[in-house]
Design a protein that fits this description.
The complex is a heterodimer of chains A (350) and B (181).
Chain A lengths: L6 H25 L10 H8 L16 E10 L15 E11 L14 E8 L5 E7 L9 H12 L5 H8 L3 H10 L11 E2 L4 E4 L5 E10 L8 H4 L6 H12 L2 E9 L19 E13 L20 E3 L4 H18 L14
Antiparallel strand pairs in A: 1-2, 1-9, 2-3, 3-4, 5-7, 6-7, 6-10, 7-8, 8-9
Helix pairs in contact in A: 2-3, 2-8, 3-4
Chain B lengths: L7 H24 L6 H30 L10 H32 L3 E4 L2 E3 L7 H36 L3 H5 L9
Antiparallel strand pairs in B: 1-2
Helix pairs in contact in B: 1-2, 2-3, 3-4
Classes of the chains: A alpha+beta (350), B mainly alpha (181).
InterPro entries (chain A): Catalase (IPR018028), Catalase_core (IPR011614), Catalase_sf (IPR020835), Catalase_SrpA-type_pred (IPR024168)
GO cellular component, one term (chain A): cytoplasm
Organism (chain A): Roseomonas indoligenes
Amino acid sequence: MQPPSTPHFRLGAFAVIAGVLCGATAAFAYTAGWLSPGRLSREKVVGALSPPGGPAPGHRRNHVKGICFTGTFEANGAGAALSRARLLAAGAYPVIGRLNLGTAAISEPDAKARVRGLSLQILGPDGSEWRTGMITPPFFPVSTPEAFYALLQASASKEPGAMPAFAAAHPEIAAFGAWAGSAPWTGSYAEERYNGINAFVFTDAGGSDHVVRWSMRPAAQPVPVPPDHLATRAPDFLNQEIRTRLAAGPVRWTMALTVAEPGDPVDDPSKAWPEGRRTIDVGTLTIQALQEEADGPCRDVNYDPTVLPDGIRTSADPFPAARSSAYALSYRRRAAEAGSYPHTAPGARP
Amino acid sequence: MTVARFSPLQRLVHWVMAACILAMLFIGVGMVSTISARYLTLVSIHKPLGIAILVLALLRLVLRLRRGAPPLPADLPEPMKLAAHLSHLVLYGLMFAMPLLGWAMLSAEGYPVVLFDGLRLPPILPQNLELYALLRGAHGYLAYAFFAVILLHLGAALFHALVRRDGVFEAMAPVPTRALD
């Protein structure tokens, strides 16, 4: 080894050390996105969902209003043709679910929410789990998470030209607009069909892959109700209605899987697949009991659509990854604010 | 001159862990920065790699307790000796704490801890939202602290190698002993 040499050499050594440390720090900052303000972060998406008065502390950042339920998913075994998932083998599996509204504003009356949702956590005896969040439209308003962020910005904008400009750049939104304008409204969560929207890859016992979207078809006959009639009902009328309905009899849906054919737009949830695609009814969801969210078992569940049993995985559809990332931030934020959404004695919540 | 060195196995584990932990920290900050499809890929690496680091940390601690470490140079100033010992203590602590915090926070969320298809770890805590908030915060902030301590460690190693040239870097250098003669 050489003894430490001249001050000149030492200066060079310190320069090397500084260079290495600065380079490592810069690489870290770049990876973290701190040098890329243009990167679409989950902070941006969750921030853009915030209603004008700010999010309700302790609550989900979107689909903020909801009611918990416990129930059962009874698989009839027909799903085994598409996936080896334990939860599609014939049997009854417990469910923690949440009926909800597609709004980020907690004060919004039920009658104003055009989109309603159903989230499920189905639990298998082997520890496997299937989480899904479904909505009433048959397709998503936009094709990509980037377009969804642009849609949130445009709809929050005070510029009169913001939405027309968005629609011009994202023509796929027209189909959603047509659905929102023409699909009948109903007076019950139980009369709605809920669609998984995103495509997932199912792998059967033989190892073959199938690209699938799923839906929950209501057992109850939908009764159209004009929206101005709904507007005269109580702000939480959907929760009251589902309680009354469950007290009178069972509330059920049939889970249907639809299989894509080659060439179908599996990576674009704004595009419905053509009529006539192979569809398999794989089981029945039955609600057994309802719980107020504040004390209910769904409250602390993150309905992350990438929690899937072995035999089902994400596909080329970009939304499940984006949803998983954004839901994690929503969950983190509401967890940190848990004290603002206290548990109450059952029935004590107004 | 003969240099007192860590054993070959200790050096191997050190450098394998160095690569794993640096990769882990970059994967961690990278994954929370994005909503792209990369998010799921990075998360799926983050979990098994974290458990791998936990196992390596255990192996490393056993090796350290059994085989010890070469002494620091006698002429190293006391404050630098203290800094060396403290930073090593912090590094060991974080090597254990970070994977355990990650596992614990997912448990508190009630989120399945899946390492690979079909390999699921049991929860190590009951589901509890307040606990999740605490653990998730700690996991994130300690990751930044971990990176900062690694930078200090790297800076000190280079200081020993290039400025003091006192054999401390050579004790852990990823080269065979004969290459140092």
